[in-house]
Amino acid sequence: MDGLTALADPTRQRIVEMLASGALASGDIARRFALTAPAISQHLKTLREAKLVRVRPERQRRIYELDPQGVRELADWVNNIEKFWSNKLDALEGALQETRKTP
After folding, report:
1. Beta carbons of 65 and 22 less than 8 angstroms apart
2. What are the tens digits of pLDDT across the range 48-81?
3. Which of 23, 49, 53, 79 is deepest in the core (most CB within 10 A)?
4. Is the pTM of this model over 0.85?
5. Where are the domains of the chain?
6. Cα(75)–Cα(70) distance, rounded to whole angstroms?
7. Coil, helix or strand at residue 97
8. How far is CA 80 from CA 6, 84, 87, in A?
9. Are the C-beta atoms of 48 and 54 separated by less than 8 Å?
């Protein structure tokens, strides 16, 4: 699953937003939702498979954090799309200014 597909779900979006502030144990993540622990576990699995988060064991806990490589890949894709639209919008602005100059 790719990052955009994984982020299509609002719960997964919120999990990623929470992890942007720092690593959290799976139990701490689950407590912030009105969902069952297995449901949160499934969301975390989806985010792991999309390479947006990574997990590390710490004693009996599983600590989740953003995966910098996966997040970077997603950010790069968004930046490329933004560049495309930025160039198109700049061209449109130029054309509109030319239209305003001609009587």
Report:
1. yes
2. 999 999 999 999 999 999 999 999 999 998 888 8
3. 53
4. no
5. 3-101
6. 9
7. helix
8. 20, 6, 11
9. yes
Q: What is the DSSP string of 10-24?
A: HHHHHHHHHHTT--E
Provide the token pair at 11.
Answer: 């719960």
| Alpha-carbon dihedral sign for residues 59, 36, 64, 51 | positive
Residue bearing tokens 């912030």 = 32
Residue with the two structure tokens 């985010």: 47
Q: What angle do CA 84, 87, 88 make, to 5 degrees?
A: 85
16 vs 89, more confident: 16
Residue type, 38: P
CA nearest to 4, candidates 89, 70, 55: 70
Domain 3-101: assigned CATH number = 1.10.10.10
The pLDDT tens digits of the residues spanning 17-40 come to: 999 999 999 999 999 999 999 999
